[in-house]
Amino acid sequence: MAVTMHGRRVMVTGGAGFIGVHSVEALLEAGAEVLVIDDLRHASYRPLPGAARLEVADVAEGTARTAIEEWQPTAILHLAAQGGVNRSWREPTMDAHINVLGTVSVLAAAMASGCRRVVVASSGGALYGAARRLPTPEDEPAQPRSPYGTAKLSIEHYLGHFTRAGAIDALALRYGNVYGPGQDGTGEAGVVAISSRRLLEGRAPVIRGDGAQTRDFTYVGDVVAANVLGLNSTVTGAFNVGTGSETAIGDLVRRLCELAGYRGEPEREPLPPGEVARSALDNSLAAERLGWSPAVSLDDGLARTLESFRTQVS
Ligand SMILES: NC(=O)c1ccc[n+]([C@@H]2O[C@H](COP(=O)([O-])OP(=O)(O)OC[C@H]3O[C@@H](n4cnc5c(N)ncnc54)[C@H](O)[C@@H]3O)[C@@H](O)[C@H]2O)c1
After folding, report:
1. Does any domain span residue 197?
2. Residue ranges making up the domain that contains 93
3. pTM to 2 decimals?
4. Closest ligand 1 atom to 40 CA
5. Closest Cα to atom 21, ligand 1: which residue?
């Protein structure tokens, strides 16, 4: 049954970004009133629906806190973040400022405005590091291997603190590698978007290392469904949001080449330091506690993504 959010006032931080715009579309569709807080530093090319209100503000600053306290949301979906793992190595202070301080600021504002429900984007791959168990369950010890992963772990500790204090009911969703229409294909992260864009421009895709490293590729529509279910629930803690399946980067790029009709060889680049060798997320807890499971197969998701980039590139 489709989730209904009539009468709910949902604030989405980072709502102009890749996962944000899809989430805003789904929330409006479900009947919610939506206010987006985003400073637009990495907005998606996918336009924000006109029915959503936009407040251009940095989540770590006072204007965002004031907007939350004035608008009094009934729930907050906190997506705003510096999302680049490599960038977090180059600029760890900036990463901590946005990802840790920005989140603490949003949580404090939620508490001050009496908003009990907060759902926050975390990251399975960045949090578990070199996990012993695959697919990895939530009780695997977190061993982040980057400032970005360390920030996500700190955020989860803050969510636990605010929840135990009785101030809010917070849920962290540990996403897999999210892909789909609207993702930025011009940066250094997001292999599906980057490869799709290169292929449609007639350029060879790039594989880092031998391409045997695996990731849990999760379609954005499935991640959005988990966000909406999370906002509509009162469960707390941290749940994986992934498919449970590993896909090697080399295989993924080959599938995209086939879909795009590209016959050349991929280019090779060295593997950046600290890259996790294997990643897949056990999704049984989200199934049990949220009633969530992924619905879009990798082949279907890749075809939809490539098609959406076709209109972008042409
Ligand atoms: N894309 C993935 O594969 C993936 C995987 C795991 C977790 N996540 C998490 O999901 C969330 C959303 O990711 P995304 O892929 O949509 O990223 P994105 O970069 O496309 O979107 C992030 C949005 O936040 C905004 N933003 C950044 N810093 C801000 C600030 N200080 N104040 C206000 N707005 C700010 C950007 O302008 C952008 O619109 C992030 O928290 C990210 O860490 C993403």
Report:
1. no
2. 9-179+217-245+275-295
3. 0.98
4. 37
5. 17
